[in-house]
Predict the structure.
Amino acid sequence: LLNDVVLPSNCCMLFCEGPPASSSSGHNTRTMPERRPFVRLPTDVYPVNYGLCLKPDLIDFTFEGKLEALIEVTQSTNQIVMNCADIDIITASFVPQGSEEINATGFNYQNEDEKVTLSFPSALQKGSGTLKIDFVGELNDKMKGFYRSKYTTPAGEVRYAAVTQFEATDARRAFPCWDEPAIKATFDITLIVPKDRVALSNMNVIDQKPYPEDENLVEVKFATTPIMSTYLVAFVIGEYDYVESQSSDGVTVRVYTPVGKAEQGKFALEVATKTLPFYKDYFSVPYPLPKIDLIAIADFAAGAMENWGLVTYRETALLIDPKNSCSSSRQWVALVVGHELAHQWFGNLVTMEWWTHLWLNEGFASWIEYLCVDHCFPEYDIWTQFVSADYTRALDLDALDSSHPIEVNVGHPSEVDEIFDAISYSKGASVIRMLHNYIGDEDFRKGMNAYLLKFQHKNASTEDLWDCLEQASGKPIAAVMGSWTKQMGFPIIVVDQEQQGDDRILTISQKKFCASGPHNGEDCPTWMVPISICTSEDPKCSKLKVLLDRPETTITLSGVGPDQWVKINPGTVGFYRIQYSSSMLESLLPGIRDLSLQPVDRLGLQNDLFSLLHKQADMQEEKNRIERVLGAISAPDLIQKVLNFALSVHMTTLPHVASVV
Ligand code: BES
Ligand code: ZN
């Protein structure tokens, strides 16, 4: 998912509504096929509860399904429009509450729109009733919808599991449904499976009995889910071992692994049991389900998927071989588990109203996974990795003309997958990190708690979160964040200084940072930039915080003597680059050499200077200065010491190579 491809900035316009392209002369000279604008499902019928029974055939790769959905008709109609893709409906009928069953007389599939219209001979009256649909489908090999996953048993036999991946819009491939995140309902799921297989779904098993028509099968019934979106529904049927534990807040946690590899699930189990109480405490909202399963799936398209109560993972994102896995594998597993468990609250309990807000879902989880891992495993020093992985990557990509705003309007399903990119994830996480730092942890948590309580079991938009954070902090969150999410790119902050007695006067200005050269034109965008400043007196702590809400400003730092250095952006949390004046840059050298400047600060400075270096090609003196600072950060003397040590070891243990060296 997290590939390096950045979409062209107009990618979100593929489906924009408007007249089809035609020449002004009126001749039809279209070069692109006309595409109908995307329309959401009608609201005259909505689901309250899905009673869903599925019977997969793991040999023929097909499945039979029975849906009995309790629905509400809000406006009299003789048709029902639902999402449906690659499914054949056998029969459909509607039973109005307390009245006679009405058989559907037609199923009109709109394949391109992934919809089906069920027609009834008479109008369905306002009120509730049960929609019954029998259908069949294929256990496909596309790793989406209800699909088959190949594995080899310890004895070497090839077998298949049946698994699901529904986000963003593939629940409709497993059963006809209202497949939009804001159309929430409860689910009662039953699976009919071979009796020697494990059957899992979002909830715990409440009943298991032999299937009357086939003695080799059992009918497994799961508890009713809370009200939830279709993209979070999941089921898995296969052969797995598991390890189990109880988190301190009473949730049963299991990690399912391939048969014979239960040992490799122990680390993820430890992470999950530590993580659940962390989130419960951070959000002040308990995890609402009685259990959570984490399962490694042999064939898996994404890295992991946060299905409520049944989180699915690629094997490399969940399993740790205690003897052979390296630290970076453990850190990756901890981050992925932290990410998906965060979604159990942020995404599952409160769900985005539409896919336009997906960046917030993913950006938030991609930030808080680090907060969580830092809490549970402080020895990882994981924030330094955030800066070296997500933050600098986002800056590099977002400086390109081909970047796009974090928030893009999406409609058609084909557009949704396009926005799962590094801008949504890494820039999204970086601006949430900047926001958290701007607000402060206490008010941020207050706002988060208000948001989760207000919208739990419902849907929310990005603006709803900003409102709650604004209320909690008294700061202009919507205005600040809008400048980062609605326009692409970021600023470079240009800083100069002047000493006046015991005061340091800083001149700070912003302009758009472009990898392709300075931004030309009058309409140079500006950002509302939270800026913090530290000095050599306390390099870890901000001496002053300001909000730069205009192109340029002047700041007075009082009590900063001429011998002190001043650094912008301590902790490298602001999503911008900094261009220091020559004197400011040079003055940072002692802080770099004595290491009082923190690793993330040196990392941020190094990254900014690298990106500026090629722009200074015509200014030799400045280039030299930058190279000097970069050299100090990379500490060649330190590298030399390491090299010398390595050589001395070589020469004592392998004297014959000494002459070659
Ligand atoms: N919700 C996503 C998984 C997803 C993304 C499914 C796109 C379908 C389409 C999940 O929470 C996620 O973000 N997974 C990441 C791993 C994470 C640790 C960054 C992934 O799959 O790369
Ligand atoms: Zn995610």
Notes: DSSP finds 15 helices and 29 strands in the chain. Residues 239-487 form a domain with the Neutral Protease; domain 2 fold (CATH 1.10.390.10).
